[in-house]
Amino acid sequence: xxxxxxxxxxxxxxxxxxxxxxxxxxxxxxxxxxxxxxxxxxxxxxxxxxxxxxxxxxxxxxxxxxxxxxxxxxxxxxxxxxxxxxxxxxxxxxxxxxxxxxxxxxxxxxxxxxxxxxxxxxxxxxxxxxxxxxxxxxxxxxxxxxxxxxxxxxxxxxxxxxxxxxxxxxxxxxxxxxxxxxxxxxxxxxxxxxxxxxxxxxxxxxxxxxxxxxxxxxxxxxxxxxxxxxxxxxxxxxxxxxxxxxxxxxxxxxxxxxxxxxxxxxxxxxxxxxxxxxxxxxxxxxxxxxxxxxxxxxxxxxxxxxxxxxxxxxxxxxxxxxxxxxxxxxxxxxxxxxxxxxxx
Length: 344
Ligand SMILES: Cc1cc2nc3c(=O)[nH]c(=O)nc-3n(C[C@H](O)[C@H](O)[C@H](O)COP(=O)(O)OP(=O)(O)OC[C@H]3O[C@@H](n4cnc5c(N)ncnc54)[C@H](O)[C@@H]3O)c2cc1C
Prior knowledge:
The protein is α+β, with helices and mostly antiparallel strands. The protein folds into three domains: 3-85, Guanine Nucleotide Dissociation Inhibitor, domain 1 (Orthogonal Bundle), CATH 1.10.405; 113-164 and 275-327, 3-Layer(bba) Sandwich (FAD/NAD(P)-binding domain), CATH 3.50.50.60; 167-273, Polyamine Oxidase, Chain A, domain 2, CATH 3.90.660. It is 37% helix and 18% strand. It contains 14 helices and ten strands. The protein has helices spanning 3-18, 38-42, 47-62, 72-81, 96-103, 143-149, 158-163, 207-210, 231-234, 239-250, 257-260, 278-288, 300-303, 308-326, and strands at residues 113-118, 123-127, 130-134, 137-139, 166-176, 190-192, 201-206, 220-226, 261-274, 295-297. The strands form three sheets. A five-stranded antiparallel beta sheet has the order 6-7-8-5-9, with helices on both faces. Strands 1-2-3 form a three-stranded antiparallel beta sheet, with no helix packed on it. A two-stranded parallel sheet has the order 4-10. The protein starts with a helix and ends in an 18-residue tail after the last helix. The structure holds flavin-adenine dinucleotide. The site of flavin-adenine dinucleotide has 17 residues, from β5, β9 and α14.
């Protein structure tokens, strides 16, 4: 950042720091920023703050167009978790929590659910081969998928559910024969590539630096994240072509990545991450005020918070709503308590 941009960053940090208590990640609709978009919020400052700070963070981590989503969730996250260089990850991968929860639960897959109905005292899941009745159902799918499952969605749920839009995401994981990384003064686990400088990528994640367990000794794992504006046209492209495009662009930041690549995997997420549009923000309070019902929802979109913390908070909220309807939870015995440690 230029000297003037650094001065403005200090001014922004002071402004948000003084109001930190008013930024609650669980209440993105109630912050001093209101529905101001990221781009609008940044417009008060030197343009480098948008181009080289807010846009790269929102673009790479959230898949956001800064002109469409509100700044409040982003500022709340920065206040709560600090700058991205100090963020933590799960040892064993992002699905660590989901796998740990599933280990104690009966999980059934391979049954397509066509419709979920609130029958008053219970929920009914309509599948191709019959019905499942349950005292409660929690739809833990992206909002557009949840809406499609609920033709009779209540009037106080529909506005928020339909306002919750998603951006697609695409990343290519490159298995390398050596632990390459972008040149930097000290080892980095991610390099954000601003839209102002880079058309194809939004970031380069150095997975073997994030968690050494992600690659064998002496090898490397680098994940290339596609720039948000590239993703829609790449969703249906041949995976090998997509990988070649991203790897070619990454040579600028990780010289030799093409030659060191042994395998690659292209991952596409049509409902990648939830946006936090002013329209969704405006409908959220009414959605949260709805009565508890036999059909509930969980997902990062409920919090308008496109990160695993958002999913965890939404899961806890859904669990408490279900339990408040059905009765008390089972007390946690000593065998159910575990200690786990996250790594940087
Ligand atoms: C590329 C990428 C990188 C990310 N990196 C990070 C990170 O480093 N740190 C972080 O904190 N967060 C990260 N996130 C965000 C994090 O993964 C999400 O916020 C979190 O997984 C959301 O949890 P969820 O339960 O709301 O939804 P999900 O974990 O997305 O679960 C929704 C489930 O619904 C299923 N589903 C969708 N459609 C259907 C359908 N039609 N029928 C049946 N099932 C369906 C999906 O398969 C999925 O299993 C990343 C997200 C992406 C896309």
